[in-house]
């Protein structure tokens, strides 16, 4: 058991919480300014406080995170003086084991994570499942869990367990040892609600992942569920009122909008320093181009065709397929750097290989032609673009019948498509989420290639073309 190191000696305990920053580090100086004021006020009133982050602090779409491989984010967490942290999928499945271990090497905060293990069933050295803090004689038990993206974790050599099953083990144990039980959950609001109804003994769930903005939290049975939106624009607070008998008598939640806060100048300087470091490390050259690789989000274009071809070869598939919206602009001639590829393809998306029947592929062709699909401003699932754009293929040709609005003369590598035959498609893992397009619900087999991202395939394909 640890005794809390700072921040007051009174009966009320303030749990300040942040979640899903996604490397929007521009809001950190404002968070620091707000939190300094709130924590100082609590201390003046002889009340205690903790600062907790619920994961997805890192996002490799930001050059700071990409260039420093997460170390910049860890320094920011250190500078903000967090007491407890759990991780999200953007930490867990967009970095290799070695990179994540290196990022956390200099952390000054505990990471609580109960459902992640090495393949040997050992827990990574940089985390522990739970912790009990003694705050002026009041024992608070904390346990952390993250979303179980099984295939992605497996591809990186991890074993991820069901957060529900793990919590059914840890919550009763904590309840025996602590006066208050708090779950750090990076699984999403719907899970948190289910958890509150299925498992007794949880006083507070500090939530994240689903980016819900809950101004006063929600009560489900006897559990208070809170969440503070996304991108660091809000900071949450839970006030635990403790009576003279060391009993929890009430719990209340509120949110603070940081947008009107002044910047903390020290944190602003640190953020700018780390942003410069990230960009500097991305100046490494990849190859050199003689001509522009243009992109068009509504029709076939050279840049998208290059990536589709690269995915076909990388994944050793019958067909390459990519939505043109993953490429955010033209690639100019001259020296191509890692930073330029990151700017044009910032998404934390992995290459993958899907197996589909020919009839489902025909339906996918039809969906990809629709203006609704091309204009879809998708949010999340690793996509960081403005809209999906049209589907571009390598190894597949067809003609579009405008009158009947359907594809015909469809050929796979020069042979006519057969509706009952299975075909493999090299694409982005975005298409493993079946709601993107109805035919994906009938995918027969999925293989995700990790830890590489689409921009790594681009670098590989560009280097091959330059030889």
Descriptive overview:
The protein folds into 2 domains: 2-279, Purple Acid Phosphatase, chain A, domain 2 (4-Layer Sandwich); 284-466, 5'-nucleotidase,  domain 2 (Alpha-Beta Complex), CATH 3.90.780. 30% of the residues lie in helices and 27% in strands. The protein contains 14 helices and 24 strands. It is α/β, with parallel strands linked by helices and 467 residues long. α3 (71-80) runs antiparallel to α9 (265-281) and α10 (302-314) crosses α14 (454-466).
Keyword list:
467 residues; 7-stranded mixed β-sheet; Purple Acid Phosphatase, chain A, domain 2; 2 domains; 5'-nucleotidase,  domain 2; globular; disordered N terminus; 5-stranded mixed β-sheet; single chain; alpha/beta
What's the topology here?
Blueprint: E1 2-3, E2 13-18, H1 28-44, E3 48-53, H2 63-68, H3 71-80, E4 84-85, H4 89-92, H5 97-103, E5 116-118, E6 130-135, E7 138-146, H6 150-155, E8 158-160, H7 163-177, E9 180-186, H8 189-198, E10 204-206, E11 218-220, E12 223-226, E13 234-242, E14 248-257, H9 265-281, E15 285-289, H10 302-314, E16 319-323, E17 334-337, H11 338-344, E18 351-357, H12 358-368, H13 371-374, E19 391-394, E20 396-401, E21 406-412, E22 415-416, E23 422-428, E24 445-448, H14 454-466
Helix pairs in contact: 3-9, 10-14
Number of domains: 2
The largest sheet, given as strand count, sense and whether it forms a barrel, is: 7 strands, mixed
CATH class category of the largest domain? Alpha Beta
Percent of residues in beta strands?
25-35%
Q: Could you say which structural class the secondary elements and strand pairing correspond to?
A: alpha/beta
Helix content: 25-40%
Count the beta strands.
Answer: 24
Report the span from N to C terminus: 60 Å
CATH topology label of the largest domain: Purple Acid Phosphatase, chain A, domain 2
Oligomeric state of shown chains: single chain
CATH architecture of the largest domain: 4-Layer Sandwich
Mean pLDDT figure: 94
Strand order of the largest sheet: 1-6-7-9-10-12-11
Radius of gyration: 24 Å
Determine the number of helices (DSSP H or I, runs of at least 4 residues).
14
Task: Report the CATH superfamily of the largest domain.
Answer: Metallo-dependent phosphatases
Low-confidence stretches: 3-10
Shape: globular
């Amino acid at each position: 058991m640890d005794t809390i190191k700072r921040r007051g000696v009174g009966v009320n305990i303030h749990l300040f919480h942040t979640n899903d920053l996604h490397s929007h580090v521009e809001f950190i100086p404002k968070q620091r300014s707000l939190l300094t004021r709130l924590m100082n006020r609590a201390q003046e009133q002889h009340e205690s406080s903790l600062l907790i982050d619920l994961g997805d602090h890192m996002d490799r779409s930001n050059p700071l995170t990409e260039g420093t491989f997460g170390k910049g984010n860890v320094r920011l967490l250190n500078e903000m003086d967090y007491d407890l942290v759990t991780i999200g999928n953007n930490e867990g499945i967009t970095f290799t084991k070695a990179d994540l271990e290196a990022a956390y090497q200099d952390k000054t905060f505990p990471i609580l994570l109960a459902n992640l293990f090495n393949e040997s069933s050992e827990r990574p050295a940089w985390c522990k499942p739970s912790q009990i803090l003694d705050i002026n004689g009041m024992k608070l038990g904390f346990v952390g869990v993250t979303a179980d993206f099984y295939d992605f974790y497996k591809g990186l050599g991890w074993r991820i367990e069901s957060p529900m099953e793990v919590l059914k083990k840890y919550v009763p144990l904590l309840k025996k040892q602590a006066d208050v039980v708090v779950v750090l959950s990076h699984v999403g609001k719907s899970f948190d609600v289910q958890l509150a109804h299925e498992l007794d003994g949880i006083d507070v769930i500090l939530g994240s992942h689903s980016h819900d903005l809950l101004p006063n939290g929600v009560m489900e049975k006897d559990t208070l569920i809170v969440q503070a939106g996304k991108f660091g624009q809000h900071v949450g607070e839970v006030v635990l009122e403790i009576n003279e008998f060391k009993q929890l008598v009430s719990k209340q939640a509120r949110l603070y909008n940081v947008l009107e806060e002044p910047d903390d100048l020290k944190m602003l300087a640190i953020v700018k320093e780390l942003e410069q470091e990230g960009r500097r490390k991305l100046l490494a050259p990849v190859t050199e181009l003689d001509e522009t690789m243009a992109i068009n989000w509504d029709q076939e274009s050279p840049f998208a065709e290059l990536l589709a071809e690269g995915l076909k070869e990388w994944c050793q598939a019958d067909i390459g397929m990519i939505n043109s919206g993953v490429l955010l602009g033209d690639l100019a001639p001259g020296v191509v750097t890692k930073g330029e590829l990151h700017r044009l393809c910032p998404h934390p998306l992995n290459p993958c290989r899907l197996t589909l029947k020919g009839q489902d592929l025909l339906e996918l062709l039809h969906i990809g032609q629709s203006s609704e699909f091309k204009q879809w401003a998708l949010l999340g699932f690793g996509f960081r673009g403005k809209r999906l754009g049209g589907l571009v293929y390598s190894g597949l040709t067809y003609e579009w019948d405008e009158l009947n609005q359907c594809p015909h003369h469809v050929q796979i590598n020069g042979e006519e498509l057969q509706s009952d035959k299975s075909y493999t498609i090299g694409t982005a893992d975005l298409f493993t989420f079946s709601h993107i397009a109805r035919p994906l619900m009938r995918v027969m087999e999925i293989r995700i290639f990790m830890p590489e991202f689409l921009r790594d395939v681009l670098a590989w394909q560009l280097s091959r073309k330059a030889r």
